[in-house]
Amino acid sequence: MKIGVVANQTKPGAAAVVVELHARAAEHGLAFFYDAETARLLNGKLGKARTKVKAKPVKGFPLPALARKVDLLLVIGGDGSLLRVVHEIYPSPVPLLGINLGRLGFLTALRRDELDTVFSALLEQRLRISPRLPLHVRIRSGKTRREIPCALNEIVLSRGGSRMALIRVEADGAFVNEYIADGLILATATGSTAYSLAAGGPILTPEAEGIFVNPICPHTLSNRGLLLSGKAAVKVTVPNQNQHLTLHYDGTAGGAIRSGDVVELRTAENPVNFAFLRERDFFHILREKLRWSGAALSAV
Nearest to residue 58, comparing CAs of 48, 46, 67? Predict the structure, then answer.
């Protein structure tokens, strides 16, 4: 098995994890390859190491080329690091296995202190693959056309000023609603544990193919979240000529949306593949990350 390694160097402890992975890979006879930035980081650390034998520099590859070369990508960082890698290599089918150096980490399901588990899982091929369908977005603004081929978590449209936003939503040509709110989240099942969860949305299992429409602080309390079919073609516009919205996808700025612009989105055809330990299913991860105890409240 060929394994690629990508590290977010801004995360404290990332360099130490990369050096340890490199040393253990040689011990276990595994072929590890690195993206260009991680290779520079590793070579810098190896060059400073006080050893009798000078370490041979490792070669770095551009991230898309690395994804084509390997059978699995190890991503060291947080969920944001994984999303950055996903955006750069999509639509590559190579699975991604995350080692969490961030905070919560629903996608980076392994901890820094579990490197023994990482290597045993790699050697025993004890991994399960979880395919996740992202959103594909097209934005029409006059004669300009833009595309976002992969929004794994969500699209967020938020007000550009102090006034509440008016956002019109259609699905498969049918009018759904005009939301008066601070903004609107259109989330995938994967994104249901991200911003949408913080905004009061439900948690969807990864296999639930749908688009969850979640208004942010709606002015009308009866405006609740709506789960659309995963096959739905969704259209979002701004009816108010004096207003503009700001679009973000997976936390990345996607520009302004003004009256007359059209945002069209649907589920993408190609999945993003994540790797997890076979013995840790989605509910295990939920219990661990959200600290669900299941214990009954003690009597007062």
Answer: 46
Give me the phi and psi of 47, to 5 degrees please: -65, -30
Burial of 134 (0-12, 13-18, 19+ CB in 10 A): buried
Please report, for residues 10, 22, 133, 134, the alpha-carbon distance to residue 149 in angstroms, rounded to integers and kept in the order given: 26, 33, 11, 9
Segment 250-298, tens digit of pLDDT: 999 999 999 999 999 999 999 999 999 999 899 988 998 888 876 544 4
Global pTM reads 0.91
Confidence of residue 127 (pLDDT cuts 50, 70, 90): very high
Domain 2-133+271-290 class in CATH: alpha beta
DSSP 193: G
Question: So where are the chain's domains?
Answer: 2-133+271-290, 135-267
Instruction: Indicate which residues carry an active-site annotation.
Output: 79
Selected from 3.30.70.270, 2.60.200.30, 3.40.630.30, 3.90.45.10, the CATH number assigned to the domain covering 135-267 reads 2.60.200.30
